[in-house]
Amino acid sequence: MGYIPEHMLENLKNYKYRGADKSLVSRFVLNPFWNWLVTLWPLSVAPNTITLTGLSIVFFNFATLLYYDPLYLVEREGYSDPPRWVYFSWGVGLFVYQSLDAIDGKQARRTGMAGPLGEMFDHGCDALNTTLECILASRALGLGRSWWAVASQIATLANFYLTTWEEYHTGILYLGYFSGPVEGILMIVAIYFITGAYGPQVWDNRIWTTLHLENVPYISRLPNLPLNEAFMVFGAVGLGFNIITSYINVLRATRQSHAKGGNNNLTARHDSNYPPLLLLLPFVVSTAIQVAWLSHPEFNHSWILHSASFVPFMCAWGLQFAHQVGRMILAHVTGTGFPVWDWVWVWSLLGAVDANLPSLLGRAPVFQTSTRNTAIFVWVTLAISLLTYARFVTLVINDITNYLGIACFTVRKKDERGVWRRVGEEKVL
């Protein structure tokens, strides 16, 4: 019942991480800092421990939102504005997360623990962080429970999916001159700090008015959007640019593999029954399911979008996405086929169909007959999504550690007699 076919376990030993980071900020500013930061960690600390520490900080930030803004989780309109220091803590926490996420690979090379497990663990934590930061950033921007927050979730997850899709087909994790893990995170950190200094209402100011450009020819003809909506438009432009660059990289890799020939994993992927572009559809389908559920026609507004069900809905969506991209990364490190379908979507599909029965069949929903029943359905979906992802993580970690003879959170390997030894000792496999 594991996720890795037994005949594909051998590919784990052949996996090697390949990355390309073109970011000038990363190269000239952050990387020297990261090189110093990793030296503060003892060699006895496992890379995955560093990764999990960073994610724990994000969980703490998310907990402060729910504690200081309880209206986010109750059936009432409006919000409680958290203390200003909370926003600063989100900014510091996200920067620390970025730093720890950047040095876990460096620690892996220092300790000789680099491999597919670290790749899986790192991407899994990044996938979880993506949704949590969408919720936090939407709150900091004053977007709250709105379609703008949903658009933020879609754009952010799409960027993550694109990067994973690109890595699967090229074998390389590309980070461009402007990437989410570097510049994108720094922008969110800046948003948290600005909100901490001036409050969420600062994002209601109009962009051209704030920049004193509202009377400049040509610019004055453009919509004078609020700052938070302008930021969303900027994100949409960035997403479009990433789609183009990712497609170019995949197209180039496909042509090169066909020109060289051979029987390597990348060639097999490019010769599969599914053209690379077609493998973007799983994300489109899964997103369409969530949007259809949110936009059901009952009353004038969605019960989920403007209720306490919004946060658990977003979290369930994020867990399902983490399961989806986790299987994509697993397919990458094991050389297996691309996961086109994910059964974890079924529960959300059921919720979307049930909520839209009035427009589909002209009858009332079967399960979501009231706000309370809808909330129960959403929370059950969250529980199922959480258990599914927890099962995935547990089984994959067990498969990889048992086959490679390594530990997840300690710098140890098994020798030929099955005895655990620290990395670097003699007779270590």
TrEMBL record:
GO terms for cellular component: endomembrane system; membrane. Its cofactor is Mg(2+). Pathway: Phospholipid metabolism; phosphatidylcholine biosynthesis; phosphatidylcholine from phosphocholine: step 2/2. Pfam families: CDP-OH_P_transf. InterPro entries: CDP-OH_P_trans (IPR000462), CDP-OH_PTrfase_TM_dom (IPR043130), CDP_ALCOHOL_P_TRANSF_CS (IPR048254), CHOPT (IPR014472). This is diacylglycerol cholinephosphotransferase. The lineage of its organism: Eukaryota, Fungi, Dikarya, Basidiomycota, Agaricomycotina. Its EC number is 2.7.8.2. It is a multi-pass membrane protein. Gene3D superfamilies: 1.20.120.1760. Its main location: membrane. GO terms for molecular function: diacylglycerol cholinephosphotransferase activity. Keywords: Membrane, Transferase, Transmembrane, Transmembrane helix. The chain crosses the membrane at residues 49-68, 172-194, 230-250, 277-296, 302-322, 329-350, 376-397.
